[in-house]
Amino acid sequence: QVQLVESGGGLVQAGGSLRLSCAASGRTISEYLMGWFRQAPGKEREFVAAITSISTISYADSVKGRFTISRDNAKNTVYLQMNSLKAEDTAVYYCAAKTTDQTDYAYWGQGTQVTVSS
To answer: What is the DSSP secondary structure assignment for residue 91, as one 8-state letter?
Structure first.
């Protein structure tokens, strides 16, 4: 089992930055695909970014050029650097993990709230 705990959310003005962290415990996540998702009020959860065990990265079109996902396997932590934040980035952000043989993300954090004021 992998436990994931997000932190770093908060209230920020449009144009500002936040750095989210996802600390994992229970297992080493170096071989896991790690992802960030978000869910805004009244909307479905959506993909934000993902990073594989060999640091292949993908982003949702809506965050490309503004968000950066990274991982520090020595710290068993994944990060999401969010720059040039917009009001529409307001959501609860979730960290998730899966192994290569799992179809869906198997492990999820509790989420951290990001609110961007315009």
So the answer is: E
